């Protein structure tokens, strides 16, 4: 299967990333184990999570997704089969947040313990921390790489200006740089990334790992009207897509999916994978049926005509 490099890190991944936000939320531990086994058995290797997943679930404390992945790694012995990405920075508690040296140094140990591993392949800032200097943050990450606890670092939810500044800080000080950016990007949500980040990432050879790659499930085609919004726990986030442009995108997805005898979800992910500069879209699944559906995208090579049809239908 094709592999792509995460920026200039030397780390190669199959260009489809499993989103671990569902572990401990809509997928219990047993289901999560089944999904992870199937994901690896299908030839994939890239798993993304965060320390804060899934703190929003009543009864959860955060770290739930990491703990499940750690238990899976312990019982399956598959650490060398996966490229493991996690994140730091979003509030775990009032005194556990941000990107200061003191907090990152503690948070990485907590993540390593939950993940039951001695290194993290890609450690990402989950959001910018305006109260900590970029020099302090990047020097701390650089130290973790030198200690062998982290192989590469990336960023998510950074403004374009701050991300560019972070790259410059690393260059000026000889620190390891952010090798990846994790932006929201899909067939519907294109404008922000394409206008603010795309040229910056391509010029600097930054690996781009997209989240909400299926627009909270809208691009699977299962939400066609407001009556469909009750189909899942994420339905509420889909209402904003039910408009003229959204329906135009669905019509194009329907047409291409029929042409390739596949699903709308695999077409939507294949379009992201085919975009210049994209390393891997992130998508999550809560059943083997969903996972098989998403996995088809990695084998799907859309024609220039199909890509153009989708790009035109989703123009903004």
UniProtKB/TrEMBL annotation:
Q: Which InterPro entries match?
A: AKR_Detox_Biosynth, NAD(P)_OxRdtase_dom_sf, NADP_OxRdtase_dom
Top-level taxon of origin: Bacteria
NADP-dependent oxidoreductase domain residues: 17-311
Q: Which CDD domains match?
A: AKR_AKR9C1
Classification via Gene3D superfamilies: NADP-dependent oxidoreductase domain (3.20.20.100)
A Pfam family hit: Aldo_ket_red
This chain belongs to which protein, by name?
Answer: Aldo/keto reductase
């Amino acid at each position: 299967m094709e592999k792509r490099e995460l920026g200039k890190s030397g780390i190669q991944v199959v260009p489809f990333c499993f989103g671990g936000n569902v572990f401990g939320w809509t997928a219990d531990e047993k289901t999560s184990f089944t999904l992870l086994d199937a994901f690896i058995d299908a030839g994939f290797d890239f798993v993304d999570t965060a320390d804060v997943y899934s703190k929003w679930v009543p009864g959860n404390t955060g770290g739930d997704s990491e703990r499940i992945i750690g238990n899976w790694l312990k019982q399956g012995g598959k650490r060398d089969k996966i490229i493991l990405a996690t994140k730091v920075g979003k509030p775990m508690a009032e005194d556990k947040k941000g990107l200061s040296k003191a907090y990152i140094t503690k948070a990485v140990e907590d993540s390593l313990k939950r993940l039951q591993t001695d290194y993290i392949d890609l450690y990402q800032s989950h959001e910018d921390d305006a109260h900590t200097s970029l020099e302090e943050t990047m020097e701390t990450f650089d130290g973790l790489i030198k200690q062998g606890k982290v192989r590469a670092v990336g960023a998510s939810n950074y403004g374009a200006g701050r991300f560019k500044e972070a790259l410059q800080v690393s260059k000026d000080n000889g620190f390891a740089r952010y090798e990846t950016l994790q932006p929201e990007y899909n067939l519907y949500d294109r404008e922000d990334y394409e206008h603010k980040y795309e040229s910056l990432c391509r010029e600097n050879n930054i690996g781009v790992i997209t989240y909400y790659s299926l627009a909270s499930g809208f691009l699977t085609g299962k939400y066609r009207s407001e009556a469909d919004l009750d189909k899942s726990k994420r339905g509420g986030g889909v209402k904003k897509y039910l408009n003229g442009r959204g329906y135009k995108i669905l019509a194009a997805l329907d047409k291409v999916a029929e042409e390739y005898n596949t699903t709308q979800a695999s077409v939507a992910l294949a379009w992201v994978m085919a975009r210049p500069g994209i390393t891997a879209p992130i998508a999550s699944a809560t059943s083997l049926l969903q996972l098989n559906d998403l996995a088809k995208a990695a084998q799907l090579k859309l024609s220039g005509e199909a890509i153009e049809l989708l790009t035109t239908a989703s123009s903004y």
